[in-house]
Design brief:
With about 425 residues, the chain is α/β, with parallel strands linked by helices. The protein has 14 helices and 16 strands. The protein is globular.
């Protein structure tokens, strides 16, 4: 890492620490006002943002980005309206800071409260989606944290204008402008600088593909909230309702294939298959999905022989792996072997089977008779998320404003001594 990036990280980190100290006790009203003002600024400056986005799209084309990445990068009025709506939604949420999480009295005369507090300074490293600049900035501000944003080099121009709108909101609400900082350079050295900035950053949140998240998890000295892959499974149990199963399987795979909650593997109980035949797989193929399978399932016309690494693979495309299993325990064993602890769904009307699936798997999100595409903070009623975490410590599943808080203990006595 060169001296320039170290010096820049020191400047940005010092400002972020100072801003975090002020945000820790900023009023809910002031934080909400900053977000509403930022939303107004985004809409008022939409032409400027769209002009900047044209420059980013040209840069992305030059870099040879895939059509999927170009789509993520592209902004239009509808997507800008989505950014404004998201800022307003976060502004209207209940303020998570200062919530009393637990409270009790001790026989020794002490009254103890556990109260939610901000984490401090959050670093967010993300790829091409410029809307993350607003989403991550908003959730960190709502939870009383300062944030250092490092957007993808391809979204640099769009993110810079959106960031300027966020700063405008802070200024109008009389909050420190350094509460939301954007790394002002495309220099990749700044990623390494953030990952090792233990003096300034309390947690890193990577938003992007396996390459980015893997790099962050390998190099970070700072704690990380992340998931490496979304290898999500749907298990159709012998006691599944056929119509529910057909709806859920199709939605879990095809609604949006490029999100981390998209189903990547379908497990079908032998008894379900004996009773209902190939209907789930035929539905998928009719919708344009390539079904990669083995054994008995290969007798279904149109299916494709699965390669060994197709199980435990994140396709993020109109492709799914499928396998027959003998009961819920075999499904659980498969998921434990090939899953990524993200999201798994069971389709069953049997309460005991569902309870076993919930009890014996340890993914961040487990679902019954519902699509894995609901693995999303907004769908959980959390107003938005900064990402999904599959680790075991602190935050798990969707990371919203509440999950960006830690806690402290407030202990009150009356001249009490030990």
């Amino acid at each position: 890492m060169d001296g320039h990036s170290t010096d820049l990280m020191t400047q940005i980190g010092t400002k972020a620490r100072a801003a975090a100290a002020q945000l820790a006790y900023a009023s809910a009203e002031r934080k909400a006002a900053a977000l509403l003002s930022a939303g107004h600024a985004v809409w008022a400056r939409r032409d400027e943002i769209l002009d900047a986005n044209i420059m980013d799209l040209a840069y992305g084309t030059e870099k040879g980005l895939s059509p999927a990445m170009m789509d993520r990068l592209m902004l239009n009025e509808t997507r800008l309206r989505g950014i404004v709506d998201a800022l307003r939604a976060v502004a209207e949420q209940r303020d998570p800071v200062g919530r009393i999480l637990a409270e009790w009295d001790r026989p020794n005369g002490l009254h103890i409260q556990r109260v939610a507090t901000p984490l401090g300074v959050i670093g967010v490293i993300y790829e091409s989606r410029p809307n993350v600049t607003a989403d991550a900035g908003a959730l960190c501000l709502k939870s009383g944290n300062a944030v250092i944003l490092r957007g993808g080099s391809e979204s640099f121009e769009s993110s810079s204008v959106i960031h300027d709108c966020m700063v405008q909101g802070l200024r109008e609400a009389n909050l420190p402008e350094a509460a939301i900082q954007l790394i002002p350079t495309r220099d990749r050295q700044m990623v390494s600088a953030m990952l090792t900035a233990t003096t300034y950053i309390d947690v890193i949140v990577p938003r992007g593909g396996k390459g980015l998240v893997g790099l962050v998890q390998a190099e970070a000295r700072v704690p990380v909230f992340a998931h490496l892959e979304g290898i999500c499974h749907v298990y159709a149990d012998r006691d599944a309702d056929l119509e529910k199963a057909r709806r859920v399987v199709l939605n879990a795979k095809t609604r949006r294939t490029g999100i981390c909650g998209a189903a990547e593997c379908l497990l079908i109980d032998w008894q379900f298959y004996t009773k209902h035949g190939a209907v789930l797989i035929e539905d998928l193929m009719r919708a344009g999905v390539e079904v990669r399978c083995e054994g008995e399932l290969l007798k279904i016309p149109g299916t494709v022989q699965a390669a060994p690494d197709d199980f435990g693979r994140e396709f993020m495309d109109m492709i799914i792996a499928a396998r027959l299993v003998d009961g819920v325990d075999a499904a659980i064993a498969h998921i434990k072997t090939y899953g990524s602890n993200h999201t798994e769904a069971i389709l069953t009307e049997n309460d005991a089977t569902a309870a076993r699936f919930f009890e014996r798997l340890d993914s961040a999100i487990l679902m019954r008779n519902a699509s894995t595409q609901f693995a999303d903070g907004g769908e959980f009623g959390m107003g938005g998320e900064i990402g999904i975490a599959t680790g075991k410590l602190h935050a798990r599943g969707p990371v919203g404003a509440e999950q960006l808080c830690s806690f402290k203990y407030l202990v009150t006595g009356d001249g009490t001594i030990r």
